[in-house]
Amino acid sequence: MALSLLSSHAIVQHGSVWTAWIHCAVHLPTFRDEYAQFCERTGGYDLAEENPSWLSIYFAFIAISLMYMKRDEVAAAGLETDEVPRLIRNWYDASIFFFHKAEFLRRHDMRSIQAIAILLGLMKNMGDFDLQSSLLAVGIGIAQCLGMDKEPPTVSENHIQQELSRRVWWTLVICDWLQRPVRAACIQEAGFQVNLPRLVTDDEMSAWNLTAVDDAYPRPIQYHIAMIRLAQEYHRFRHKLPTTADTAAKLESFVLEADESLARIIDELPPHLTMSGQIGDDIPWAHSQRKNLAVALLFYRLNINRVLQHQWLDCDVAFRRARAICLSSAKAIISLVDGDSDSLVLYRSWATTSHMFSAAITLAIEVQHGDDDQAARHGADIDKCLAFFDSVQEQNMLARQAATVLEEVMLDQTETHN
Predict the structure, then answer these.
(1) How far apart are CA 261 and CA 255, in angstroms?
(2) What does pTM read for this prediction?
(3) I need a labelling partner for 339 at 20 to 30 A (CA). Which of 97, 314, 360, 404 fits?
(4) What's one GO-annotated cellular component (predicted)?
């Protein structure tokens, strides 16, 4: 667990730019100040007297940062590439250890919720599938006890802490409403009232001079807001689906309406989050944000339209539109990820693995019910998914499972056709 200050500084700096906007769990100026004081006190080694809640945040922060570092960034941080999986596992385990040492169930603290918000992005990569769903539910309950589900949040009277609380609460909402496999949500839309995060950077949040804010300038928080809108639309879709599935025509209309809601999200994205938008050198993180968002939006378009898959497999031509959207979304997901091999590090997350697996299974079902021509057209894309799983599985336990299941599906289909 020992880490030189040179390496620690590099990883914290990387996380401030490239991963902090994924979880939105820390106010960066505050976290950097706390980190500097930590280094001054301990040199990064003597942890015995440190606050375990903060240490849980710190180790989770550097673990997820390292997971997204490229080879040259790892080398610049003074680390060996071969050591990366072990270090991520070590720091992830350290975060969990200090999380429990802080007695998070007995002593409710917003820092525990911040740690959970980061750990949720790591747990499925580490293979802790059951712990991920359990800790999400516990985190939501503690957040509610702290008043993070209220407006203004009653967890603190400090305006920075209140705005951070909003961001972290919405991270929990996103994880709850977009969790996979789909489960009953712990959070109900009518059960809380929390404003969307303000359109400010962390530095602007510190100054709190909102009259001077330029709304047109890109900010990392806009990705978070887009994911919130996606979560809201998908949650509403899942909530209403059981009551609209009594007839095929009614279901088709409902799917079309939900698909159009996602299209509106795409239409209303700020330019830097669209695939055609220009990105300046001063916002390098925007490249990662828009690629991740594009894959996520394609996945949920696929997921919504796939509700009609049973109908179109029965050869009902009335559902050709949904089938076309579903298949084109699946192929677009695979194309985006496979065609961006230079930035493969961006796709190490379990979420991308889930998107790719869903795309592959969608195509595999088409192959199963189609002819040899369909098998040839979709087989190459399925092979790309298997190659992707192989490339990330060293740091992604979900990818190992996805590859095993997909290979079994394809083997069964081969034996059936033979």
Answers:
(1) 10
(2) 0.95
(3) 404
(4) nucleus
Q: List, for residues 32-71, the tens digit of each pLDDT value.
A: 999 999 999 988 778 988 999 999 999 999 999 999 999 9
pLDDT in tens, 253-275: 999 999 999 999 999 999 999 99
Domain locations in the chain?
A: 1-208, 235-418
Q: Which two tokens mark 293?
A: 């968002």
CA distance linking residue 365 with residue 164, whole number of Å: 43
Query: For residue 372, what pLDDT is reported?
Result: 66
> What's the sign of the alpha-carbon dihedral 69, 65, 221, 232?
positive
Q: How many residues does the chain have?
A: 418
Rounded CA separation 318/316 (Å): 5
Q: Confirm if 301 and 247 have CB atoms less than 8 A apart.
A: no
Strand boundaries in 216-306, DSSP class E: none
Letter string b/e over residues 285-299, b meaning 16 or more CB atoms within 10 A of that residue's CB: bbebbbbbbbbbbbb
Residue type, 334: I
Residue with token string 């530095």: 203
Lookup: tokens for 225: 């807001």
Q: Which two tokens stand for residue 311?
A: 């109908």
Q: Which of 384, 377, 386, 392 is nearest to 407 (CA)?
A: 386
Here the tokens at position 206 are 């510190």
| Dist. CA 61–CA 59, nearest whole Å | 5
Any idea what DSSP says for residue 194? -
Residue corresponding to tokens 């030189």: 4
